[in-house]
Amino acid sequence: MMKGNDNNGVVSGASLTTDRFGNSNKAYNFNGANNFISVADNPELFQMS
């Protein structure tokens, strides 16, 4: 499970990897075909500034 800003997500297929700053397990690697992170609908995700 992925958490942040009260929007919890479920990771499907993607794997944790090293981010661009060299921090282990701080980024996700997607295969480009069927990996995703699913989050519940939340009006805050659709706000335009």
What does this molecule look like?
Helix content is 0%, strand content 29%. The protein has one domain. It is extended and about 30 Å long. The chain has strands at residues 9-12, 15-17, 27-29, 36-39.
SSE-based structural type: mainly beta
Sheet-strand content, in percent, reads 25-35%
Strand order of the largest sheet: 1-4
Order of helices and strands: EEEE
- What is the total number of structural domains? 1
Query: What percent of residues adopt helix (DSSP H or I)?
Result: under 10%
Number of strands: 4
Low-confidence regions: none
Q: What is the CA-CA span between the terminal residues?
A: 28 Å
Largest sheet entry: 2 strands, antiparallel
Summed up, what is this model?
With 49 residues, the protein is mainly beta. The protein contains no helices and four strands.
Provide key terms for this protein.
49 residues; mainly beta; two-stranded antiparallel sheet; two-stranded antiparallel ribbon
Topology:
Layout: E1 9-12, E2 15-17, E3 27-29, E4 36-39
Antiparallel strand pairs: 1-4, 2-3
